[in-house]
Amino acid sequence: MSDSTNTVKNMDDIVALCRRRGFIWQSSEIYGGINGFWDYGPLGAQLKKNLKDAWWKDTITCPPIGPDGNPIQVVPVDTTIIMHPRVWEASGHVGGFNDPMVDCKETKSRYRLDQVEVLTVEGKGSWAFPQGDPDYISKKLKKAGGIKVDQGTVTNLEQIPVEDYATIIGPDTEKPGTLTEPRQFNLMFETYCGAIRNDDSKSYLRPETAQGIFTQFWNTVDTSRVKVPFGMAQMGKSFRNEVTPRNFTFRSREFEQMEIEFFIHPDEADTWYAYWRDLRFQWWQKVGLAGNNLTLREHDKAELAHYAKTGAGVCDVEYRFPFTAPGYGELEGVAHRSNFDLQAHANTCGKGDKMQYFDQEKNERYFPHVIEPSAGADRGTLALLCEAYTPTPDRKGAKAIMQFTPRMAPIKAGIFPLVNKDGMPEIAQKLYMQLREKHVVQLDVKQNIGKRYARMDEAGTPYCITVDGDTAGTQNVTIRDRDSLEQTTISLDKVGAFLDEKING
Q1: Domain match, 77 and 137 both
Q2: Which in 2, 235, 291, 410 has the greatest CB count within 10 A?
Q3: How many CB atoms neighbour CB 266 within 10 A?
Q4: Is the pTM of this model over 0.90?
Protein backbone atom coordinates (compact mmCIF):
# COMPACT_ATOMS: atom_id res chain seq x y z
CA MET A 1 0.00 0.00 0.00
CA SER A 2 1.12 3.50 -0.75
CA ASP A 3 1.80 5.68 2.30
CA SER A 4 1.83 9.01 0.48
CA THR A 5 -0.69 11.70 1.27
CA ASN A 6 -3.55 12.31 -1.11
CA THR A 7 -2.46 15.89 -1.74
CA VAL A 8 -0.59 14.64 -4.82
CA LYS A 9 -3.42 12.53 -6.28
CA ASN A 10 -5.75 13.95 -8.89
CA MET A 11 -9.43 13.19 -8.27
CA ASP A 12 -10.25 13.54 -11.96
CA ASP A 13 -7.79 10.74 -12.74
CA ILE A 14 -9.36 8.51 -10.09
CA VAL A 15 -12.88 9.18 -11.40
CA ALA A 16 -11.70 8.44 -14.96
CA LEU A 17 -10.20 5.10 -13.91
CA CYS A 18 -13.37 4.23 -11.98
CA ARG A 19 -15.43 4.80 -15.10
CA ARG A 20 -12.99 3.11 -17.50
CA ARG A 21 -12.56 -0.03 -15.42
CA GLY A 22 -16.12 -0.38 -14.21
CA PHE A 23 -15.88 0.64 -10.56
CA ILE A 24 -18.46 3.45 -10.48
CA TRP A 25 -20.74 5.06 -13.06
CA GLN A 26 -23.26 7.88 -12.81
CA SER A 27 -26.80 6.60 -12.45
CA SER A 28 -28.99 6.84 -15.57
CA GLU A 29 -25.97 7.94 -17.56
CA ILE A 30 -27.56 7.31 -20.97
CA TYR A 31 -30.19 9.95 -20.10
CA GLY A 32 -27.67 12.50 -18.94
CA GLY A 33 -27.42 11.20 -15.36
CA ILE A 34 -29.07 12.35 -12.16
CA ASN A 35 -27.11 14.37 -9.65
CA GLY A 36 -26.34 12.68 -6.33
CA PHE A 37 -26.94 9.09 -7.46
CA TRP A 38 -24.29 6.56 -8.48
CA ASP A 39 -24.17 2.98 -9.76
CA TYR A 40 -21.43 0.45 -9.07
CA GLY A 41 -20.06 -1.53 -11.99
CA PRO A 42 -18.70 -5.09 -11.75
CA LEU A 43 -15.45 -4.18 -9.99
CA GLY A 44 -17.02 -1.52 -7.78
CA ALA A 45 -19.90 -3.74 -6.68
CA GLN A 46 -17.45 -6.45 -5.65
CA LEU A 47 -15.16 -3.96 -3.87
CA LYS A 48 -18.07 -2.53 -1.91
CA LYS A 49 -19.33 -6.04 -1.07
CA ASN A 50 -15.87 -7.00 0.20
CA LEU A 51 -15.90 -4.00 2.52
CA LYS A 52 -19.42 -4.81 3.77
CA ASP A 53 -18.57 -8.49 4.20
CA ALA A 54 -15.51 -7.58 6.26
CA TRP A 55 -17.61 -5.29 8.46
CA TRP A 56 -20.28 -7.97 8.91
CA LYS A 57 -17.76 -10.65 9.85
CA ASP A 58 -15.65 -8.46 12.12
CA THR A 59 -18.57 -6.88 14.02
CA ILE A 60 -21.42 -9.42 13.94
CA THR A 61 -20.42 -13.02 13.21
CA CYS A 62 -16.99 -12.84 14.82
CA PRO A 63 -16.88 -9.75 17.04
CA PRO A 64 -13.81 -9.03 19.18
CA ILE A 65 -13.20 -9.29 22.89
CA GLY A 66 -14.70 -6.48 24.97
CA PRO A 67 -12.98 -4.34 27.61
CA ASP A 68 -14.20 -6.77 30.29
CA GLY A 69 -12.33 -9.66 28.66
CA ASN A 70 -15.45 -11.36 27.29
CA PRO A 71 -16.50 -11.71 23.63
CA ILE A 72 -19.01 -9.00 22.81
CA GLN A 73 -22.39 -9.93 21.35
CA VAL A 74 -23.84 -8.15 18.33
CA VAL A 75 -26.98 -9.40 16.57
CA PRO A 76 -28.16 -8.37 13.09
CA VAL A 77 -31.46 -6.86 12.03
CA ASP A 78 -32.77 -5.69 8.67
CA THR A 79 -35.42 -3.01 9.00
CA THR A 80 -37.51 -1.21 6.39
CA ILE A 81 -36.65 1.94 4.49
CA ILE A 82 -40.15 3.36 5.09
CA MET A 83 -41.38 3.38 8.69
CA HIS A 84 -44.27 4.94 10.57
CA PRO A 85 -44.02 8.76 10.31
CA ARG A 86 -44.07 9.07 14.11
CA VAL A 87 -40.67 7.35 14.20
CA TRP A 88 -39.20 10.50 12.69
CA GLU A 89 -41.15 12.76 15.01
CA ALA A 90 -39.77 10.92 18.04
CA SER A 91 -36.22 10.95 16.71
CA GLY A 92 -36.30 14.69 16.05
CA HIS A 93 -35.86 14.42 12.30
CA VAL A 94 -39.19 15.99 11.33
CA GLY A 95 -38.63 19.05 13.49
CA GLY A 96 -34.86 19.30 13.50
CA PHE A 97 -33.37 17.59 10.44
CA ASN A 98 -32.98 20.88 8.63
CA ASP A 99 -30.18 22.81 7.01
CA PRO A 100 -30.25 26.55 6.27
CA MET A 101 -30.32 27.12 2.52
CA VAL A 102 -30.05 30.05 0.15
CA ASP A 103 -31.67 30.17 -3.29
CA CYS A 104 -30.60 31.99 -6.42
CA LYS A 105 -33.50 34.04 -7.79
CA GLU A 106 -32.04 33.96 -11.29
CA THR A 107 -30.95 30.31 -11.78
CA LYS A 108 -33.32 28.73 -9.22
CA SER A 109 -30.28 26.87 -7.83
CA ARG A 110 -30.20 26.09 -4.11
CA TYR A 111 -27.13 26.02 -1.89
CA ARG A 112 -26.47 24.91 1.67
CA LEU A 113 -25.50 28.01 3.62
CA ASP A 114 -22.46 26.49 5.33
CA GLN A 115 -21.14 25.07 2.05
CA VAL A 116 -20.77 28.39 0.25
CA GLU A 117 -17.73 30.64 0.55
CA VAL A 118 -17.33 34.19 -0.67
CA LEU A 119 -14.21 35.82 -2.07
CA THR A 120 -14.22 39.57 -1.45
CA VAL A 121 -11.68 41.86 -3.11
CA GLU A 122 -11.90 45.43 -1.90
CA GLY A 123 -13.00 47.78 -4.65
CA LYS A 124 -13.59 44.93 -7.09
CA GLY A 125 -16.52 42.86 -5.80
CA SER A 126 -17.58 39.63 -4.06
CA TRP A 127 -17.97 36.18 -5.67
CA ALA A 128 -19.60 33.11 -4.11
CA PHE A 129 -18.35 29.58 -4.84
CA PRO A 130 -18.77 26.04 -3.46
CA GLN A 131 -16.78 25.52 -0.28
CA GLY A 132 -13.15 24.61 -0.95
CA ASP A 133 -13.45 25.09 -4.73
CA PRO A 134 -12.33 28.62 -5.69
CA ASP A 135 -11.53 27.35 -9.21
CA TYR A 136 -15.31 27.30 -9.72
CA ILE A 137 -15.23 31.07 -10.32
CA SER A 138 -11.92 31.25 -12.17
CA LYS A 139 -13.53 32.44 -15.44
CA LYS A 140 -15.43 35.20 -13.63
CA LEU A 141 -12.26 36.40 -11.92
CA LYS A 142 -10.44 36.43 -15.24
CA LYS A 143 -13.17 38.59 -16.78
CA ALA A 144 -12.99 40.92 -13.77
CA GLY A 145 -9.40 41.81 -14.58
CA GLY A 146 -7.47 38.64 -13.78
CA ILE A 147 -8.14 38.71 -10.05
CA LYS A 148 -6.37 36.02 -8.00
CA VAL A 149 -7.92 34.35 -4.97
CA ASP A 150 -5.06 35.45 -2.74
CA GLN A 151 -5.82 39.10 -3.54
CA GLY A 152 -8.92 39.03 -1.32
CA THR A 153 -10.43 37.43 1.74
CA VAL A 154 -12.51 34.24 1.77
CA THR A 155 -15.41 34.06 4.23
CA ASN A 156 -18.11 31.45 4.76
CA LEU A 157 -21.49 32.77 3.64
CA GLU A 158 -23.09 32.02 7.01
CA GLN A 159 -20.76 34.61 8.57
CA ILE A 160 -21.84 37.38 6.18
CA PRO A 161 -24.77 39.65 7.16
CA VAL A 162 -27.85 39.24 4.97
CA GLU A 163 -27.83 42.94 4.12
CA ASP A 164 -24.48 42.40 2.31
CA TYR A 165 -25.93 39.71 -0.01
CA ALA A 166 -26.83 42.45 -2.51
CA THR A 167 -23.13 42.83 -3.34
CA ILE A 168 -22.41 39.11 -3.84
CA ILE A 169 -22.34 37.45 -7.25
CA GLY A 170 -23.88 33.99 -6.86
CA PRO A 171 -21.95 30.81 -7.77
CA ASP A 172 -23.81 30.37 -11.07
CA THR A 173 -24.66 33.95 -12.05
CA GLU A 174 -22.86 36.94 -13.53
CA LYS A 175 -24.53 39.69 -11.52
CA PRO A 176 -24.81 40.47 -7.80
CA GLY A 177 -27.88 40.43 -5.59
CA THR A 178 -29.53 37.17 -6.69
CA LEU A 179 -29.09 35.21 -3.43
CA THR A 180 -32.07 35.04 -1.08
CA GLU A 181 -32.07 35.13 2.69
CA PRO A 182 -31.31 31.74 4.30
CA ARG A 183 -34.28 29.52 5.15
CA GLN A 184 -34.65 26.05 6.64
CA PHE A 185 -34.90 23.05 4.31
CA ASN A 186 -35.73 19.52 5.55
CA LEU A 187 -33.40 16.91 4.11
CA MET A 188 -35.80 13.96 4.22
CA PHE A 189 -37.33 12.57 1.05
CA GLU A 190 -41.13 12.57 1.31
CA THR A 191 -43.26 9.78 -0.12
CA TYR A 192 -46.83 8.49 0.23
CA CYS A 193 -48.17 5.10 1.28
CA GLY A 194 -51.41 3.96 -0.32
CA ALA A 195 -53.59 5.14 -3.18
CA ILE A 196 -54.48 8.59 -1.82
CA ARG A 197 -51.84 11.29 -1.52
CA ASN A 198 -52.64 13.42 1.52
CA ASP A 199 -51.14 14.30 4.89
CA ASP A 200 -52.43 11.07 6.43
CA SER A 201 -50.55 8.95 3.90
CA LYS A 202 -47.32 10.98 3.90
CA SER A 203 -44.18 9.17 5.00
CA TYR A 204 -40.43 9.45 4.50
CA LEU A 205 -37.51 7.51 3.14
CA ARG A 206 -35.26 6.90 6.12
CA PRO A 207 -32.34 9.34 6.48
CA GLU A 208 -30.47 6.85 8.70
CA THR A 209 -30.66 3.16 9.60
CA ALA A 210 -30.36 3.74 13.35
CA GLN A 211 -34.04 4.35 14.11
CA GLY A 212 -35.06 0.96 12.74
CA ILE A 213 -32.70 -0.58 15.30
CA PHE A 214 -34.08 1.49 18.16
CA THR A 215 -37.71 0.69 17.39
CA GLN A 216 -36.93 -3.05 17.33
CA PHE A 217 -34.84 -3.02 20.53
CA TRP A 218 -37.66 -4.39 22.65
CA ASN A 219 -38.52 -7.21 20.22
CA THR A 220 -34.86 -8.17 20.08
CA VAL A 221 -34.57 -8.36 23.87
CA ASP A 222 -37.80 -10.41 24.07
CA THR A 223 -36.90 -12.91 21.35
CA SER A 224 -33.11 -13.26 21.52
CA ARG A 225 -30.74 -14.48 24.20
CA VAL A 226 -29.17 -11.07 24.66
CA LYS A 227 -28.61 -8.89 27.67
CA VAL A 228 -26.92 -5.56 28.23
CA PRO A 229 -24.19 -4.95 27.14
CA PHE A 230 -25.00 -6.08 23.60
CA GLY A 231 -25.24 -4.61 20.14
CA MET A 232 -27.67 -4.54 17.26
CA ALA A 233 -26.36 -3.90 13.75
CA GLN A 234 -27.58 -3.51 10.23
CA MET A 235 -26.44 -2.27 6.88
CA GLY A 236 -28.75 -0.71 4.35
CA LYS A 237 -29.70 2.23 2.17
CA SER A 238 -30.51 5.67 3.53
CA PHE A 239 -31.63 8.80 1.70
CA ARG A 240 -30.99 12.48 2.25
CA ASN A 241 -32.17 15.18 -0.12
CA GLU A 242 -28.78 16.88 -0.27
CA VAL A 243 -29.08 20.25 -1.91
CA THR A 244 -25.55 20.22 -3.32
CA PRO A 245 -24.35 16.63 -3.74
CA ARG A 246 -20.69 16.75 -4.71
CA ASN A 247 -17.25 15.19 -4.64
CA PHE A 248 -18.12 12.03 -6.55
CA THR A 249 -19.81 9.54 -4.17
CA PHE A 250 -18.76 11.36 -1.00
CA ARG A 251 -21.96 13.39 -0.63
CA SER A 252 -24.84 11.57 -2.33
CA ARG A 253 -28.59 11.50 -2.00
CA GLU A 254 -28.72 7.71 -1.79
CA PHE A 255 -26.06 5.96 0.26
CA GLU A 256 -25.46 2.84 2.31
CA GLN A 257 -24.68 2.71 6.01
CA MET A 258 -23.06 0.10 8.24
CA GLU A 259 -24.38 0.90 11.68
CA ILE A 260 -24.09 -0.53 15.19
CA GLU A 261 -26.09 0.49 18.24
CA PHE A 262 -24.37 -0.94 21.30
CA PHE A 263 -26.56 -0.88 24.41
CA ILE A 264 -24.83 -0.39 27.74
CA HIS A 265 -25.45 0.43 31.38
CA PRO A 266 -25.28 4.24 31.83
CA ASP A 267 -22.39 3.94 34.30
CA GLU A 268 -20.18 2.21 31.71
CA ALA A 269 -20.40 4.86 28.97
CA ASP A 270 -16.82 6.12 29.24
CA THR A 271 -15.34 2.63 29.01
CA TRP A 272 -17.42 1.48 26.06
CA TYR A 273 -17.05 4.76 24.16
CA ALA A 274 -13.25 4.55 24.36
CA TYR A 275 -13.39 0.89 23.35
CA TRP A 276 -15.48 1.43 20.21
CA ARG A 277 -13.59 4.60 19.25
CA ASP A 278 -10.24 2.81 19.23
CA LEU A 279 -11.61 -0.41 17.73
CA ARG A 280 -13.22 1.28 14.73
CA PHE A 281 -10.12 3.37 13.99
CA GLN A 282 -8.03 0.19 14.01
CA TRP A 283 -10.54 -1.59 11.75
CA TRP A 284 -10.23 0.97 8.97
CA GLN A 285 -6.47 0.56 9.15
CA LYS A 286 -6.84 -3.22 8.78
CA VAL A 287 -8.93 -3.00 5.59
CA GLY A 288 -6.38 -0.87 3.77
CA LEU A 289 -6.28 2.68 5.16
CA ALA A 290 -3.24 2.22 7.38
CA GLY A 291 -1.33 5.14 5.90
CA ASN A 292 -1.08 8.75 7.02
CA ASN A 293 -4.34 9.74 5.27
CA LEU A 294 -6.39 8.39 8.20
CA THR A 295 -7.02 10.28 11.42
CA LEU A 296 -9.28 10.26 14.48
CA ARG A 297 -10.89 13.52 15.57
CA GLU A 298 -12.82 14.18 18.76
CA HIS A 299 -15.72 16.62 18.38
CA ASP A 300 -15.80 19.94 20.14
CA LYS A 301 -18.75 20.51 22.47
CA ALA A 302 -20.21 23.02 20.02
CA GLU A 303 -20.45 20.32 17.32
CA LEU A 304 -22.39 17.77 19.35
CA ALA A 305 -25.83 16.63 18.20
CA HIS A 306 -28.87 16.95 20.46
CA TYR A 307 -28.59 13.30 21.56
CA ALA A 308 -24.94 13.63 22.61
CA LYS A 309 -24.83 16.91 24.54
CA THR A 310 -24.09 15.21 27.87
CA GLY A 311 -22.44 12.08 26.51
CA ALA A 312 -19.02 10.52 27.00
CA GLY A 313 -17.94 11.84 23.64
CA VAL A 314 -18.29 11.90 19.87
CA CYS A 315 -15.50 11.36 17.39
CA ASP A 316 -15.05 10.86 13.67
CA VAL A 317 -12.75 8.52 11.84
CA GLU A 318 -11.66 10.78 9.01
CA TYR A 319 -9.82 10.23 5.74
CA ARG A 320 -7.84 12.70 3.68
CA PHE A 321 -9.52 12.51 0.28
CA PRO A 322 -7.88 14.28 -2.68
CA PHE A 323 -10.79 16.77 -2.71
CA THR A 324 -10.48 17.52 1.02
CA ALA A 325 -6.67 17.66 1.20
CA PRO A 326 -4.97 18.90 3.22
CA GLY A 327 -8.09 18.46 5.36
CA TYR A 328 -10.18 15.36 5.99
CA GLY A 329 -13.67 13.99 5.39
CA GLU A 330 -15.75 11.77 7.66
CA LEU A 331 -15.77 7.98 7.16
CA GLU A 332 -17.41 6.93 10.40
CA GLY A 333 -18.78 8.57 13.50
CA VAL A 334 -18.60 7.01 16.96
CA ALA A 335 -21.03 8.65 19.37
CA HIS A 336 -22.37 8.18 22.86
CA ARG A 337 -26.07 8.80 22.12
CA SER A 338 -27.04 8.54 25.81
CA ASN A 339 -30.57 7.04 26.17
CA PHE A 340 -32.20 9.71 24.03
CA ASP A 341 -33.64 7.47 21.33
CA LEU A 342 -35.07 4.62 23.40
CA GLN A 343 -36.65 7.05 25.83
CA ALA A 344 -38.04 9.23 23.03
CA HIS A 345 -39.70 6.27 21.31
CA ALA A 346 -41.07 4.93 24.59
CA ASN A 347 -42.62 8.33 25.38
CA THR A 348 -43.93 8.98 21.88
CA CYS A 349 -45.70 5.62 21.63
CA GLY A 350 -47.32 6.32 25.02
CA LYS A 351 -45.72 3.62 27.19
CA GLY A 352 -42.98 5.67 28.84
CA ASP A 353 -41.13 4.02 31.72
CA LYS A 354 -43.02 0.76 31.18
CA MET A 355 -40.56 0.09 28.35
CA GLN A 356 -37.46 0.32 30.50
CA TYR A 357 -35.01 -2.55 30.25
CA PHE A 358 -35.05 -4.91 33.25
CA ASP A 359 -31.68 -6.24 34.41
CA GLN A 360 -32.45 -9.42 36.35
CA GLU A 361 -28.96 -9.79 37.81
CA LYS A 362 -28.96 -6.25 39.23
CA ASN A 363 -32.73 -6.12 39.80
CA GLU A 364 -32.69 -2.73 38.11
CA ARG A 365 -34.82 -0.99 35.48
CA TYR A 366 -33.40 1.64 33.14
CA PHE A 367 -33.20 2.85 29.55
CA PRO A 368 -29.81 1.65 28.29
CA HIS A 369 -27.37 4.15 26.93
CA VAL A 370 -25.99 3.64 23.43
CA ILE A 371 -22.59 3.81 21.79
CA GLU A 372 -23.12 4.18 18.05
CA PRO A 373 -20.37 3.42 15.52
CA SER A 374 -21.96 4.49 12.22
CA ALA A 375 -19.94 4.02 9.03
CA GLY A 376 -20.58 4.85 5.40
CA ALA A 377 -20.15 1.96 2.97
CA ASP A 378 -19.98 4.30 -0.03
CA ARG A 379 -17.52 6.67 1.59
CA GLY A 380 -15.49 3.69 2.76
CA THR A 381 -15.39 2.31 -0.77
CA LEU A 382 -14.37 5.72 -2.10
CA ALA A 383 -11.57 5.93 0.48
CA LEU A 384 -10.30 2.49 -0.55
CA LEU A 385 -10.27 3.64 -4.18
CA CYS A 386 -8.41 6.86 -3.37
CA GLU A 387 -5.89 5.13 -1.13
CA ALA A 388 -5.25 2.33 -3.62
CA TYR A 389 -4.83 4.59 -6.65
CA THR A 390 -1.12 4.82 -7.47
CA PRO A 391 0.06 6.47 -10.70
CA THR A 392 2.71 4.36 -12.45
CA PRO A 393 4.40 6.44 -15.16
CA ASP A 394 7.27 3.94 -15.38
CA ARG A 395 5.15 0.80 -15.59
CA LYS A 396 4.34 -0.28 -19.13
CA GLY A 397 0.67 -0.57 -20.03
CA ALA A 398 -1.20 0.52 -16.89
CA LYS A 399 -1.68 4.24 -16.23
CA ALA A 400 -2.09 3.40 -12.55
CA ILE A 401 -2.23 0.41 -10.25
CA MET A 402 -4.89 -0.04 -7.58
CA GLN A 403 -3.08 -1.27 -4.50
CA PHE A 404 -5.99 -2.82 -2.59
CA THR A 405 -5.22 -5.20 0.23
CA PRO A 406 -5.89 -8.80 -0.89
CA ARG A 407 -8.96 -8.98 1.36
CA MET A 408 -10.53 -5.93 -0.32
CA ALA A 409 -9.40 -6.57 -3.92
CA PRO A 410 -12.41 -7.21 -6.22
CA ILE A 411 -10.47 -9.89 -8.13
CA LYS A 412 -8.03 -11.93 -6.08
CA ALA A 413 -6.09 -13.48 -8.95
CA GLY A 414 -5.88 -13.41 -12.72
CA ILE A 415 -5.15 -16.69 -14.46
CA PHE A 416 -3.32 -16.54 -17.79
CA PRO A 417 -2.28 -19.18 -20.28
CA LEU A 418 0.89 -17.73 -21.78
CA VAL A 419 -0.41 -18.56 -25.25
CA ASN A 420 -3.59 -20.21 -26.45
CA LYS A 421 -2.09 -23.51 -27.57
CA ASP A 422 -0.03 -26.53 -26.48
CA GLY A 423 -2.45 -27.46 -23.68
CA MET A 424 -1.96 -24.23 -21.73
CA PRO A 425 -5.57 -23.02 -22.04
CA GLU A 426 -6.87 -26.34 -20.71
CA ILE A 427 -4.60 -26.26 -17.65
CA ALA A 428 -5.54 -22.62 -16.96
CA GLN A 429 -9.25 -23.44 -17.31
CA LYS A 430 -8.96 -26.33 -14.83
CA LEU A 431 -7.11 -24.12 -12.31
CA TYR A 432 -9.71 -21.40 -12.73
CA MET A 433 -12.57 -23.84 -12.04
CA GLN A 434 -10.83 -25.03 -8.86
CA LEU A 435 -10.01 -21.57 -7.48
CA ARG A 436 -13.34 -19.93 -8.20
CA GLU A 437 -15.07 -22.18 -5.65
CA LYS A 438 -13.44 -20.13 -2.87
CA HIS A 439 -12.18 -16.90 -4.42
CA VAL A 440 -13.16 -14.33 -7.04
CA VAL A 441 -10.69 -15.07 -9.83
CA GLN A 442 -10.68 -14.25 -13.52
CA LEU A 443 -9.47 -16.26 -16.51
CA ASP A 444 -7.98 -13.95 -19.15
CA VAL A 445 -6.77 -15.35 -22.46
CA LYS A 446 -6.92 -12.29 -24.73
CA GLN A 447 -4.01 -10.16 -25.99
CA ASN A 448 -0.38 -10.39 -24.96
CA ILE A 449 0.69 -11.04 -21.38
CA GLY A 450 1.74 -7.40 -20.83
CA LYS A 451 -1.72 -6.05 -21.63
CA ARG A 452 -3.30 -8.65 -19.41
CA TYR A 453 -1.03 -7.61 -16.55
CA ALA A 454 -2.01 -3.97 -17.16
CA ARG A 455 -5.72 -4.77 -17.01
CA MET A 456 -5.28 -6.61 -13.74
CA ASP A 457 -3.11 -3.83 -12.27
CA GLU A 458 -5.83 -1.26 -12.93
CA ALA A 459 -8.45 -3.61 -11.46
CA GLY A 460 -6.32 -3.96 -8.32
CA THR A 461 -5.74 -7.71 -8.66
CA PRO A 462 -2.88 -8.61 -6.28
CA TYR A 463 -1.73 -11.82 -8.01
CA CYS A 464 -1.45 -13.01 -11.59
CA ILE A 465 -0.89 -16.71 -12.25
CA THR A 466 0.70 -17.71 -15.54
CA VAL A 467 0.52 -21.16 -17.11
CA ASP A 468 3.45 -21.53 -19.51
CA GLY A 469 4.83 -24.17 -21.87
CA ASP A 470 6.60 -26.03 -19.06
CA THR A 471 3.59 -26.31 -16.75
CA ALA A 472 2.31 -29.57 -18.24
CA GLY A 473 5.62 -31.26 -17.45
CA THR A 474 6.71 -29.53 -14.22
CA GLN A 475 3.21 -28.93 -12.78
CA ASN A 476 4.44 -25.48 -11.78
CA VAL A 477 3.00 -22.04 -12.47
CA THR A 478 4.40 -18.53 -11.99
CA ILE A 479 2.70 -16.09 -9.60
CA ARG A 480 3.43 -12.41 -10.13
CA ASP A 481 2.96 -9.94 -7.27
CA ARG A 482 1.17 -6.73 -8.31
CA ASP A 483 3.15 -4.35 -6.12
CA SER A 484 6.68 -5.74 -6.06
CA LEU A 485 6.54 -7.37 -9.53
CA GLU A 486 8.34 -10.37 -8.02
CA GLN A 487 7.59 -13.67 -9.71
CA THR A 488 7.43 -16.89 -7.71
CA THR A 489 7.30 -20.43 -9.02
CA ILE A 490 4.79 -22.61 -7.19
CA SER A 491 3.26 -26.05 -7.65
CA LEU A 492 -0.22 -26.16 -9.19
CA ASP A 493 -1.61 -28.06 -6.21
CA LYS A 494 -0.45 -25.34 -3.79
CA VAL A 495 -1.97 -22.32 -5.52
CA GLY A 496 -5.22 -22.57 -3.52
CA ALA A 497 -3.39 -22.63 -0.19
CA PHE A 498 -1.24 -19.70 -1.33
CA LEU A 499 -4.32 -17.56 -2.02
CA ASP A 500 -5.99 -18.66 1.22
CA GLU A 501 -3.00 -17.47 3.23
CA LYS A 502 -2.57 -14.19 1.39
CA ILE A 503 -6.26 -13.24 1.45
CA ASN A 504 -7.34 -14.53 4.86
CA GLY A 505 -3.96 -14.05 6.51
Answers
A1: no
A2: 410
A3: 11
A4: no
